[in-house]
Design goal:
The structure is a homotrimer.
Chain A (H helix, E strand, L loop, with lengths): L20 H14 L4 E3 L6 H6 L6 H6 L3 H9 L21 H9 L9 H13 L11 H12 L6 H7 L2 E5 L2 E2 L5 H8 L6 E2 L2 E2 L1 H4 L6 H12 L6 H17 L4 E4 L11 H12 L5 H22 L2 E4 L3 E2 L4 H7 L7 E2 L5 H11 L7 E3 L4 H12 L5 E3 L9 H15 L17 H21 L5 H19 L6
Parallel strand pairs in A: 1-2, 2-4, 3-5, 6-7, 7-10, 10-11
Antiparallel strand pairs in A: 8-9
Chain lengths: ~475, ~475, ~475
Amino acid sequence: MTVSPTAPSALHEDRLLPSQPQERAIAREIFAATSGLPIVSMHGHVDAGMLASNSPFPNPAELLVIPDHYLVRMLVSQGVPHDSLGVPRKDGGAVETDPREVWRAFASRWKLYRGTPTRIWMEHVLESVLGVTSALSAATSDEIYDAIAERLAQPEFRPLALLDSLDIEILATTDAAGDSLEHHAALASDGYGDRVVPTFRPDAVVNLDRPDWRASVDAMAERSGIDIVDYASYIAAIESRRRAFVAAGTRATDHGHLYADTEPLDPAEAERVFQAALKGEVTGASARKFAGHMLTEMARMSCEDGMVMQLHPGVLRDYDPRVFAERGPDVGYDIPIPIDHARALQPLLTRYGHDPRLTLVLFTVDEDVFGRELAPLAGVFPAVRLGAPWWFLDTPEAMRRFRETVTDTAGFYNTSGFVDDTRAFLSIPARHDISRRVDAGHLAKLVAEHRLSLDEATETAIDLAYEIPRAVYPPLSS
Amino acid sequence: MTVSPTAPSALHEDRLLPSQPQERAIAREIFAATSGLPIVSMHGHVDAGMLASNSPFPNPAELLVIPDHYLVRMLVSQGVPHDSLGVPRKDGGAVETDPREVWRAFASRWKLYRGTPTRIWMEHVLESVLGVTSALSAATSDEIYDAIAERLAQPEFRPLALLDSLDIEILATTDAAGDSLEHHAALASDGYGDRVVPTFRPDAVVNLDRPDWRASVDAMAERSGIDIVDYASYIAAIESRRRAFVAAGTRATDHGHLYADTEPLDPAEAERVFQAALKGEVTGASARKFAGHMLTEMARMSCEDGMVMQLHPGVLRDYDPRVFAERGPDVGYDIPIPIDHARALQPLLTRYGHDPRLTLVLFTVDEDVFGRELAPLAGVFPAVRLGAPWWFLDTPEAMRRFRETVTDTAGFYNTSGFVDDTRAFLSIPARHDISRRVDAGHLAKLVAEHRLSLDEATETAIDLAYEIPRAVYPPLSS
Amino acid sequence: MTVSPTAPSALHEDRLLPSQPQERAIAREIFAATSGLPIVSMHGHVDAGMLASNSPFPNPAELLVIPDHYLVRMLVSQGVPHDSLGVPRKDGGAVETDPREVWRAFASRWKLYRGTPTRIWMEHVLESVLGVTSALSAATSDEIYDAIAERLAQPEFRPLALLDSLDIEILATTDAAGDSLEHHAALASDGYGDRVVPTFRPDAVVNLDRPDWRASVDAMAERSGIDIVDYASYIAAIESRRRAFVAAGTRATDHGHLYADTEPLDPAEAERVFQAALKGEVTGASARKFAGHMLTEMARMSCEDGMVMQLHPGVLRDYDPRVFAERGPDVGYDIPIPIDHARALQPLLTRYGHDPRLTLVLFTVDEDVFGRELAPLAGVFPAVRLGAPWWFLDTPEAMRRFRETVTDTAGFYNTSGFVDDTRAFLSIPARHDISRRVDAGHLAKLVAEHRLSLDEATETAIDLAYEIPRAVYPPLSS
């Protein structure tokens, strides 16, 4: 093997594999066994409506720039205003409306993404999905824009066609408790019911201090046909919606809490706090307690209905209130904070951690927590699986550190296998490709250090990429 | 050098050395200088009675599976019940009693241990100590069981014979304050007094809220012949037991606290809390304060009697109360939590941190703490040495991170050198072997990056493996 | 390339570059583009008076040993008393006065520094600056002492001559709010006004519970000519001093707080706390609140006068009160503690984090914080730049981890580029050399893994070493 230092970096066949020749040779063999496996995407945020309508994507900027908070936040951090990136204002004020200009604002600052996963994802999307091989720059911006736009107009670039061509075996979306699931019903009637499945995400109804709590509870009441007047009817409505989700093919729930608290409230206290919330009088402390209580309730329900429970705490959402007021959530202002995990999860785990009906996948964006608390928990509680490095950690370096840190204590088989986490539909293959390459490199190192045989390493790589996620998120008989 | 990717991974002569050929060549030279050094094992948990009786080990399962919490917790995490692993119940209820079945439950799940230190330890024990070279599997389980059982029946596999054949120069055990030290007396009368030494572990008598506190205090009273009726007589009893331990060859104390608190209480407050404990009325907060107070008292006593003080805080013991009630402690349910170290240790260190009579070895299972707090403390206080990566961190990757993180600030010579931490007697050589290989690799990298000469690296490797532990834990003239 | 394991490690031309041959070849090319760049040193602690007087350095011990807290703390940690190192006592008590003896105490313990940055810095200073190529030891101590002393007597080793020969384009010092700036005035009249610039460090006047607070406020009042009788006059005096600093060429402020708190007080509360401080009645809690308030005030002032704001919280200063009483601050007893960053900085960032007039460079000595909190903040707030790994993290390994951890989320261009942090004038080139080598190695790995082209990597290396620091700390038009 020779490394040609001047070769273009985009999509080199050995990209992200170890540079050390012995390790690279082994890694190539391992990667060859996983690179062609179908994609199992059980933790995505792709819009179900986009898939159901199967309309052509509008334009390069609205597809690849404006909704991608990784990409937008980098430009903002270097002084590019949200307005000039076309990020919509809640007050309907003017923002850049020419997608070509938005694309230029991005393409001309391509340099900023050196060393970031956004660069790797975008290169993969451009070359491997869209067939664009020119490097992004101010000079090439329009030419690339036009090339992408031309592709997007073709039938093979419609969402459902891409589901096939990208070899996505199953794709989970994320859906609120009050969601109608109409898009999933439409997809099911088109034969996609086992392939595009909802995920039950009740955050808006369990966090009593969210601005959208009341509206979300009302939506859930309407969908469930249950009049929510007290804690009991609230729980009944949630259980009703969970049944509807299971019937629609859902395999998992998803919980994004600020804290990992799981201490249950006694019924009278739960009722008291809930009534206060109905009156709009809940305090922050009560809301925190109630959210913790509901996590353990959700574990109980998962034992009953079989949905895998996914938890990712520790992110302070909407850090800047002015930006939130102006643009809403999910525009790049969610910031990780250190929180307690081991003690916070103790009430839930001592109740349900040995229950064979429960699978609890724990994610974090705090790398300390993986080794110190989550790997020891996953390494003893049968219910716990470690979620993949996620969000800010969905990067080659963090994936490598994850394997190097948690495998000691949790092994490979107490992890969830690779679980992507993106709303950028076209980048799903890129994310799995990175994970498979990094795992191949990590396993190759173990082989090169005489800690695993090549056969074992190859089997492990296949398990991590495909078999484990399928086993962790099985279909439910509804 | 060529790497043969299909070679069996077990006990390759270059295992765990860097795969990069230049570094490996250097690492081999360094490792050649340490691989044959005797083992100094100053922080072990091997049962002194086992050594004193020198009986044959019972069977492979009782020797290698049931008491090994690393191994058992992995099986439990994948749904294997404690009962089927033969882990005894406190209520005397039925558990698997056929050791061959227990061994099968383990051997058939060998795949789970890929990438874990348990795999490395077990391969070393099987091949290097027991002469078994077949790979574990369901198919080979019985054959390997029989081979091990045959070895264990031979006289050269009795404990004291192994002490010689494994080249263990000195082995410290861990002993409660109220222990009779009768096994050590027996060993001493057989000529092993300088080779198998007790360690004074007073956790059960300083943590007032432990369920076994009162019984432990009573045992200490009986052993010391001191009637413990107040704080003064309690301290006198501890000091008396420490003298007995020193007389029995003890070199160190060992303290496993939840917090690193060391704030002293004034005498009246200490008396008040102690009296409350005698009445069974101590609170959690008082117990925590008293435990902190006692750490600084223990530092004072170490200054007086010369015993090295070992502290490893930050582990929440017996995380699951139902498992604890059913199986007792040390079955894999101890989970690290983040705690304050720098401020907590300040009272002790500002009193005794410059005292030339004190050596305080600080361990942690929270890797953050090594770099952020412990290395800066060890790098300035003469009394402080950094304990080796320990327990969940007793792994090749964590050892490597330890060297890469703490050497900057503490150097090599403010560490304790390698200190193993195991109750698995046969695995002691494996643990030292791993450490010597990882240190050889780390030092080889420094040589390859032209930061150390090979001579310096080799001397440092010998110091870490042998000279520093001997110097940090010297014999005391009792 | 061949690695000769027996080559002396000092100043090998490839030192600190990756050992893997493909990566090393690339790293050499990248490093060739940065190794000759001038030094931009915007966060130093060199004494302005030393430069202004331009006197010869006194002797090797007073230049290289006694004032270097990295070096001294290592010797202290191994039992060498401060007295025998000539570290002055506040009570004027006797300490070693023979610099040759102090030098011997250091040289004879050279082994302790293996693997530490002090070793690399000292080797660079000795060989590259002072022309000494012998290795330090007890045997060579005197010979090396004499060689250094001889150099220091020569005119080309006077401070201002070294400023040229070390190719330091600009050097920032650190100066108290009440400093007269007379040395900078003298330097300016000698033509060094743009080359040696002050930095405004108001810690002593904003931390109300510092023992030197009142004296520092009095000094500021005298310098500013403003009678400080209330909060308003206090703020006016600070603003006045800031104007004087800007006029003297200052480009930045520097803030070393224990906490990162930035919550503003309302004016009445600020006045109340300030009046209590004037009466000597301030509490620790009030002082903490006031310090946090003042950070946001400083951000406001930076928006107005353009000075870059540098913040490095989280270090518990003067950990041992007896050592502090005996020797004063800055003798190696500052210990990092974990503190909250994301929430603590929220008040400041939501007020000024999008203000195009502000640049806030955030440093930390807690590596967890870089990835978990600071990179996400720098990756979205236009005002924030990540400061270089600093103090305990100013090491090859920590620099590498910094790039591997923060680049994912913040990229290269939201960092400050390399910013050294030393009071050891002669070691400034060593620190930049290390950074350039480590960055070359990191970038070479990205090239070898086909993630960047060599051209991109080389441009990035130049930006990190030179262009970014110049852009982050621009001259102000006063």
